[in-house]
Design a protein that fits this description.
Number of helices: 27
Largest sheet: 5 strands, mixed
Number of domains: 3
Distance between the termini: 102 Å
Low-confidence stretches: 127-132, 282-288, 748-768
CATH topology of the largest domain: Beta-lactamase
Helix content: 40-55%
Number of strands: 20
């Protein structure tokens, strides 16, 4: 049996049929080459790694950055791992194309993907110690497009150093040849210019042209074209921002190459080589264009992409948000204007004293020393100095150069990390969202003062005690459970026992009681703690928590009596959303920030709409809106500072609810116009740093931001901001709501404050609390 096998094997040997030694060895070489190519093409036994098939070569997919826009088509940024925006070759300056060919592949139009002369020239140069690339532009395209040198493209043999190089070089030759079969030279050039990196994670000529020179690729002049072409040899070494001298030297080499091949004259080459670099901006990091909207939209898009099999960072999606650029601008301006003014008041209030105090107003010892340990700089120093306390403290107190946030703009300064923490600890922060609950659309989203300095998003990530803004949910539950706006409670001290051993004795913010009967509408309008607590005891604090969750609060709520006064942390997003359910006639819609998504070819692939669910009856929703309107109509209503803003044209109705947490740590306002709910939070990064006066209340810190924002929008008659009176009920109202008690002394305070001057208004506001 064995003899027959060896006899058969002998017949298969080439030398059995070819007697000429030269022809025999030539045939053997060809056979080995064919087998080698077969191994590469088939990735036999996973030895050589991935090899693109015909489909991938005939229709290559290039990673393209996805772009995000406002609803009115203003760019908000990009999502990418490789920042790339494709462009046609016809839109590229011919000077750049000529500079590229003269430098990288002078025989580009003569070869078929592999240049034998260039290859052997590079081998000879390498032997002489002068490494010079021999790859053609087509080979470079194959390498860039199919990532031949990535670990994921290598097989088992790729673990062997020299063998690995031979394999990926051969792959690039094969793919370059195939590309030349499928595409014209101009198409290859176009793909090359759209895939190659120009440094700083800027892929493609369009992105590079904009970032380096702030111009379209068609507008590039000779020196700019030469610089970009030269940069491709080594994007770090010749980076004009980091290594300008190297970049100029390399640019001049490109100019010499263009002169050598008679593309430009020696006079032009010499003249341009003497010119200075004129760049658009110093090393523009893409994060500089980042913002709170882009970050929140990114989290939402990741969910959608995972469900719909798209790659946010490579598929070139065009994403349109619900954000309106003008409303966004007005929101940002309103917050910046008001907080910059209040910041000075904060400094004046504290003077030379430290602002971090406990509930009794005593300075918290070692406050900075404790909190600096949470910072990245402390952790880096601890690792570097291996925990040596003296060295860490010396590093923390060592002055260094830094860019500092100020309300007048960023400034460069010298400051230690400890002094930086001391400074930033006292900066007022804000979060704001304006939401159309009828459309389920977020119209403005301000996550903080300045994303460059403060990355933490105070709309969706930060959670703080909402204070009296939470009372609305207690009154909503009560109305839905049978109470009416005209039902009364006496404003008096309250004692509530719960959980067998616990007790709660809430105080009014004035620390006094009127002992008057208060209608529920007036109690909500005046934000009377004692009445709210009594009402909560009647309906149950678990009921308040249940209604808050149903209306839109997602955070965990402690089911205790104090829940009605906002003792559990929530964020701006969910609080605004919950009020939106009330404004939208009791219908809950989940707030959307993404409206439409198009693929890279401009095809609409998704149009997102909010889910709808009725939470409250129309009667309950209308009654609680009517009660909230009391915040501006009732005597001593906590929203009456709104009268100082020009937001009531032609009888327009606007209202809202203030909120202030313990010791004025957090100031809130949720404002309502005809179709918008706008939530505002103001505080600092640390709850122990705050005003210790009425200036820290929601009516002073947060309400004016809403007023300024709405005033700006109404001044331009913005079409997305509806005006008029709140709608009349669409159903029969079965409960009494138009109630008045003339025997109450507080009724003698004027209901309409439109005729009051500013000084009188401020005197009145001094007596109004949350």
């Amino acid at each position: 049996m064995a003899g027959r096998f060896f006899a058969f094997y002998k017949r298969l040997q080439i030398k059995h049929y070819i007697k000429n030694p030269v022809l025999l060895w030539l045939t053997r070489i060809i056979a080995v080459f064919v087998i080698y190519i077969f191994l590469l093409e088939t990735n036999f036994l996973w030895l050589t790694g991935f090899m693109p098939g015909r489909a991938a070569l005939s229709n290559p997919e290039v990673a393209i950055a996805s772009e995000i826009y406002t609803a009115d088509s203003i760019p908000l940024g990009k999502f990418f791992k490789e920042n790339r925006t494709p462009i046609a070759l016809s839109d590229v300056s011919p000077l750049l194309v000529k500079a590229l060919i003269c430098t990288e592949d002078i025989r580009f139009y003569d070869h078929h993907g592999f240049d034998m002369l260039s290859f052997f020239g590079s081998v000879a140069s390498t032997v002489q110690g002068d490494e010079r690339g021999g790859s053609t532009l087509t080979q470079q395209l194959a390498k860039n497009m199919f990532r031949t040198r990535a670990a994921s493209s290598q097989g088992l043999l790729g673990k062997i150093p020299v063998v690995r190089t031979i394999i990926y070089k051969t792959k690039e030759w094969i793919m370059a040849f195939k590309l030349e079969l499928f595409y014209s030279k101009d198409e290859i050039l176009e793909m090359y210019l759209n895939t190659v990196e120009f440094g700083n994670n800027w892929y493609g000529i369009k992105v590079a042209s904009y970032h380096y020179f702030n111009k379209a690729p068609s507008q590039l002049n000779l020196q700019e074209s030469a610089l970009l072409a030269g940069l491709l040899k080594a994007t770090t070494t010749y980076n004009p921002f980091r290594n300008p001298d190297n970049a100029i030297s390399r640019r001049n080499i490109v100019l010499n190459q263009m002169e050598k091949y008679k593309v430009i004259s020696s006079f032009v080459a010499d003249s341009v080589s003497r010119s200075d670099l004129k760049l658009f901006a110093p090393n523009d990091e893409e994060s500089g264009d980042d913002n709170y909207i882009r970050r929140y939209a990114e989290s939402e898009m990741k969910k959608w992409c995972a469900d719909n099999n798209y790659n946010l960072y490579e598929d070139g999606l065009k994403i349109y948000t619900t954000i309106d650029s003008r409303l966004q601008k007005f929101a940002e301006e309103a917050m910046y204007e008001h907080l910059s003014e209040m910041q000075q008041r904060f400094y004046d209030f504290w003077g030379s004293r430290n602002s971090w105090t406990d509930d009794q107003g005593r300075e918290i010892p070692e406050f900075l020393e404790t909190n600096i340990k949470r910072t990245a700089v402390y952790k880096d120093l601890k690792k570097y100095y291996k925990g040596n306390v003296d060295s860490i403290n010396a590093g923390l107190n060592q002055p260094k150069s830094m860019s500092l946030f100020t309300w007048e703009g960023a400034v460069d300064t010298i400051m230690s990390s400890m002094d930086s923490l001391r400074y930033y600890t006292q900066i007022l922060q804000g979060g704001m969202m304006s939401y159309d609950p009828f459309a389920g659309a977020i119209r403005a989203y301000v996550g903080g003062n300045d994303y460059h300095f403060f990355k933490y998003d105070h709309v969706t990530k930060s959670k703080r005690q909402p204070g009296s803004t939470f009372k609305t949910f207690a009154y909503t539950a009560a109305i839905d459970k049978g109470y009416s706006p005209c039902d009364t409670f006496i404003d008096k001290p309250v004692y509530i026992a719960y959980n067998d051993t616990e007790k709660w004795e809430p105080k009014n913010t004035t620390w006094t009681y009127t002992y008057y009967k208060k209608t529920l509408r007036r109690a909500l309008a005046q934000s009377v703690n004692s009445v709210t607590a009594q009402l909560t005891e009647k309906i149950g604090w678990t009921t308040v928590a249940d209604y808050a969750h149903r209306l839109g609060i997602k955070s965990k709520l402690a089911e205790v009596p104090s829940i009605c006064l906002g003792s559990s942390d929530v964020n701006v997003f969910e609080l605004t959303n919950a009020y939106g359910t009330i404004l939208a006639d009791g219908v809950y819609r989940n707030p959307q920030i993404i409206s439409k998504i198009y693929d890279r070819n401009g095809k609409l692939v998704a149009e997102l709409r909010s889910d709808e669910k009725r939470i409250l009856s129309s009667e309950t929703a209308w009654l609680i809106r009517y009660m909230l309107l009391g915040c501006i109509q009732e005597p001593r209503g906590t929203s009456q500072a709104l009268w100082s803003f020009n937001i009531f044209p032609n009888g327009n109705e606007v209202t809202g609810k203030t909120g202030t947490s313990s010791n004025n740590s957090d100031a809130w306002y949720v404002g309502m116009s005809q179709n918008l709910v706008t939530g505002v939070w103001v505080g600092t990064e640390y709850r122990s740093v705050h005003f210790r006066s009425d200036t820290g209340q929601g009516s002073r810190l947060a309400l004016p931001i809403f007023g300024k924002y709405l005033q700006k929008a109404l001044a331009v008659k913005h079409p997305l901001v509806k005006t008029g009176k709140f709608p009349e009920p669409t159903v029969k109202i079965t409960k009494p709501y138009n109630c008045f008690y003339p025997d109450s002394a507080e009724n003698f305070i004027p209901d309409s404050l439109m005729l009051l001057n500013d000084s009188t208004m401020m005197m009145l506001m001094d007596s109004i609390s949350d």
